[in-house]
Design goal:
- Chain A: Residues 81-303 form the LUD domain.
- The structure holds 2 protein chains of 2 kinds.
- By secondary structure, chain A is of the alpha/beta class.
- Chain A has 2 domains: 1-415, NagB/RpiA/CoA transferase-like (Rossmann fold); 432-487, no CATH class.
- Chain A has helices spanning 19-27, 30-52, 57-73, 75-88, 99-112, 124-129, 131-137, 147-155, 171-181, 191-208, 234-240, 261-272, 307-311, 327-331, 333-338, 349-360, 365-369, 379-383, 390-408, 411-414, 417-429, 432-445, 463-466, 479-487, and strands spanning 92-96, 117-121, 141-144, 211-214, 218-220, 225-230, 244-250, 254-255, 280-285, 297-303, 450-451, 454-455.
- Chain A has a 6-stranded parallel beta sheet with strand order 1-10-7-4-2-3, sandwiched between helices. A 4-stranded mixed beta sheet of chain A has the order 8-5-6-9. In chain A, strands 11-12 form a two-stranded antiparallel ribbon.
- The longest helix of chain A is centred in the first third of the chain and has 23 residues, at 30-52.
- The radius of gyration of chain A is 26 Å and the shape is globular.
- Chain A starts with 18 loop residues before the first helix and ends with a helix.
- The model of chain A has no long low-confidence stretch (mean pLDDT 94).
- Chain B is globular.
- Chain B has 2 domains: 3-120, no CATH class; 133-245, Rossmann fold, CATH 3.40.50.
- By secondary structure, chain B is an alpha/beta fold.
- Chain B has a 4-stranded parallel beta sheet, with helices on both faces. In chain B, strands 6-5-7-8 form a 4-stranded parallel beta sheet, sandwiched between helices.
- Chain B has helices spanning 9-14, 16-28, 44-49, 52-66, 77-93, 97-106, 113-120, 140-145, 151-157, 180-183, 185-201, 212-224, 234-239, 242-245, and strands at residues 3-5, 33-34, 71-74, 110-112, 133-136, 163-165, 206-209, 230-233.
- The relative contact order of chain B is 0.15.
- Classes of the chains: A alpha/beta, B alpha/beta.
- Chains A and B meet through helix 1, helix 15, helix 18, helix 19 and helix 21 of A and helix 1, helix 2, helix 3, helix 4 and helix 5 of B.
Amino acid sequence: MTPRTKPPDAFSPGETPTFEVSARESLRDSQLRRNLGKATQTIRRKRAVAVEELPDWEELREAGRALKERTLRHLDTYLLQLEESVTRAGGVVHWARDADEANRIVAGIAKEKGADEVVKVKSIATDETKLNEHLESEGIHAFETDLAELIIQLAGENSSHILVPAIHKNRAEIRELFLRELDVEDLSDEPKDLTNAARLYLRKKFLNAKVGVSGANFAVAETGTISVVESEGNGRMCTTLPPVLVTLMGIEKIIPRWRDFEVFMQLLPRSSTAERMNPYTSFWTGVSGEAGDGPQEFHLVLLDNGRTDVLADEIGRQTLNCIRCSACLNVCPVYERTGGHAYNSVYPGPIGAILTPQLVGIGKPGPDSLPYASSLCGACYQVCPVKINIPEVLVHLRGRVVRHKQDGGTLRQRLDPENVAMQAMAKTFSDPKLYENAQGLARVGQWPFARGGKIGSLPGRLAGWTAVRDLKPVPKQSFREWWKEERG
Amino acid sequence: MRVALFITCFNDTLFPETGRATVEVLERLGHEVAFPEAQTCCGQMHFNTGYQREAIPLVRRFVEIFEPYDAVVAPSGSCVGMVRDLYPMAADLAEDPDLARRVDELAPKVFELSEFLAKRLGVTDVGAYYPHRVTYHPTCHSLRMLKVGEAPLELLRNVRGIDLVPLGEAEQCCGFGGTFAVKNAETSAAMLGDKIRRVLDTEAEVCAAGDNSCLMHIGGGLRRLQAGVETVHLAEILASGASEER
């Protein structure tokens, strides 16, 4: 098969639809609602059990947060230390300011080795840079080897979950896809048979590839060790079989010391898959040397692509604490119902709603709508293993979105009905007399809509409310009128 | 103790009965309740929708009006959450250290009704009588921002005649979320659908909560379906039937 390219998202050129528009479509997909509801509820329950086992869970979270925030405060120092450690171990470090630089570095290495195929694993950062599309344009096919990544690559779809990219698909759908794409004759929908079909297909790719491309969960500054945490072992194949390995990672993935794994290796598996320890954890430091297994050549590409802008925002920077566990997705009542595609980003769910607009910059309709894709219920903050106060960042980003519109905005943006209404209400609330008048006006103004003691239909933007809910009319006497009458 | 009632603009305008019930409960416990009439809105809607510069004057007003009191009580978890959790952020945005200091002094004195009763006063039986089958939705801001915990349930368990039934998946958001309910109306409705299913599963006559905003949303859906389930604020349950019992 020839790998398909994925649909565009927030990191592609051009505009993406708003969350509101995309969510409307996903909400109507009954199969998706069923698949996601079942999956997120199961993992949510399991995670709660796995976390309950550790009496010092809250202390671990606090340690994770403190380690990450300290690292980010001294990121310049740690990055240089990492470069030195990796170089000492025989690796080559490359610095990429943006997606384009990163892609050109990786493509350059593959071309130099004469590779027309690369095997890939575990890298959302490469989805962010659109590496596969870039490689394809240079005549190099990138094969995803993580099972779920393979599934969505075969289907020509985007990931809908950070950890379980094909969470929106059930096994019957996967069976049909494999029958169509993998050249197998007969296949049941048993997980064992499905994984076996993928294994047979992937094994050939692993053995033939000259270049492997991976992401990273962690990079240790003091030793130059890179770590990938996974469930299938395909990551280990990808990072050990090809003679050349290229790892692309965001600059925030760094941890200072080897011993910091003590904290993160407890936080990550329990938060992501509800396991005490995940099945495969790979560590590698530089190249394998003459006799050993593993790559003879190792390249580490350090990617900025907007991360230093995130770091410059005092409230927003905690977003970079993220260790991509996806616990926030699994507990999010919005994500559970809309799924990941509605976010139009490689980073869906609550963390995506704060990371995407910060990485691509405020002022684009699609990403700007993401901080509003939340009821601010706070379930994400409660489970985050590195204590990112997601609701706080959501509210902060809403502020940035509005200020960007108001300050740089055109006349049309300033005359936006929401802006006008909000200005008027702010003025009303600033003066008790105006406020009391407005209460009276609301009582009078509602008469065209109030029928039989309820409001069943409202005009304009407010119609969204009355589409599924009645509204209680404004009562005859406000509380303050009662107070004045009784106590005044 | 000088207790001030922070009625919230939402309750003042749409749910005056909740305000009257709050006064009734506090006075029954022997407290003198003041109602500073200059109060309007805490600024939550503006702040959470992103109109944060517009919210700053409302934050200043709130601080000036309520800082003279020993305690400020509101029948709303989410408006109290705004004051306690987000006023410091508003003061930072205003770049006003004096406002920040005053916010830090005022915030710990602002309470949601059930936490004021159960945690601050240590009262979990207010002598109410309410002979109905009731289920309780904990509301996200009370639960996760204010961490009121069992306070509202302890109060409800001590109500005479009540048949209190647990709500399944109670901690899941109902989908209100302020302007979220309008901006993302379809997603909000999908969340509401599941909340209503859980409420109907309890076969309760009444769905109670500490926030009328969530109740307006849940109740609006229940009424549209003619489900025969009323939504009632916790304060009204705590204020009811006391005179007959005593």
